[in-house]
What we know:
The chain is an alpha/beta fold. Helices cover about 35% and strands about 15% of the residues. The protein folds into 2 domains: about 5-275, TIM Barrel; about 285-415, no CATH class.
Amino acid sequence: MANIKVLFWFDVEDYVTPESMDAFRGLIDLCDSRGIPGIFKIVGEKARMLVELDRQDIIEKLRNHEVGYHTDFHSVHPTISEYLEHMGFKDGAEQFDRVEYGGLKDVERITGMPIECYGQPGGSWAPQQFPAIRKWGVPVYLDNHEQVKLNSRPYWYGGLLNFMELTGFMRMELVEDGLETAKREFDDIYEKLSSEPVGFVSIVYHPNEFSTPRFWDDVNFARGKNPPRSEWQPASPLWPPGAMEAYLATLGEFLDYMLSKENVTFITSVEARELERSDKGELAEAQVRQLAEGLAGDLYFTQLGDFTLSASDTHSLFCNYLLGRPLSPELIYGPETDTASSGSPVVTVRELKQAIAAPYPDVFGFKMLPDTFKAGEALVNPVDLTCTMAKVIRDGLTDDDEVAIVRGCLRSQQHASDDDFWGKGWIIFPEDFRVPNIVRMSKLQTWTLKPALF
């Protein structure tokens, strides 16, 4: 029988249309009336508007729910993808931290709640976000985006537990036959997830949808427009009187329908994270040797007993094995660039050990893989080096033995999309907006990609 966990989340972002505040309050009341937790991802400026408009009622009622972060200004240009497209991984992470951290602290201060999850504004995703979010102590990425996908299941990427592009992603549309259509869709998802130990349903709304049919940022920032604040306009037209209450009531009927099903519960991102069961302890030497036996030139994530291991976990385990360190996997971010190995095709094991013992670059104190390792007369990229370490372990080679550099590939890159034309995907982007740099870096950061276990 299905064990269905529903993540019911809201992107709380419209800080231009005053009526969206009442919809925000209405959605909190809707959750309260059924005793279910809502996950409210709040934009920094929206939180500041709660204070400006003296909506202490909303702030107080949020204490029964979970608070997440949804950037400081959401759709004001340059958006995240726009300002990070021209930056590297480390400097992009540092820029994201500088631009967005103040908003997170405002949401935290105003609500009096810890920030438990994060999600990007609209289609504005970038891999450089992840080290900064991890630095902030936010462990879950909850949203929807097609750039990195893993079999429609939750996954680890960038050091965060990601609930993205799930089989169970759905919503009841606010249209005449929305309720019956949503019931059928939920039944289909319920059946699809029936064999899962835990099946996740991810449902998203924006409070502003319940006050107006048009999005606030479409009005002001569509296709790269960036008017001064004095010219920002609220979304219009508003729904006619009584429509917001009717939509909330219909959504309540859908919640009741889901709750009527066996083994369906609504949970927060904190509770979802607690269900993730990947082992975080040490491996035995025999397990590391088993891992090396299974690796030739194809570097990918894997499951070994209760462990799921990313390519960077595997790299760290091989390093620890060869250097006589505790065999605990360690997340290491991917390199800045994809650089071919060069120089001598053969190194000694001693030279290999010296290369991996040298300090790694870092971002916010989190280790990154260098573009290449210097081993004797060779410059070896991280993929080839990891595959070569596997051969050393497999063959039981010692310090004075020579080993030929094993050429490999990072197969986990296949889970990152090649499509860099994002202008078509979110109305806020300029129509011709492309992100080849973000796509390239998203693939390099699949060093950190692995399935989550529940």
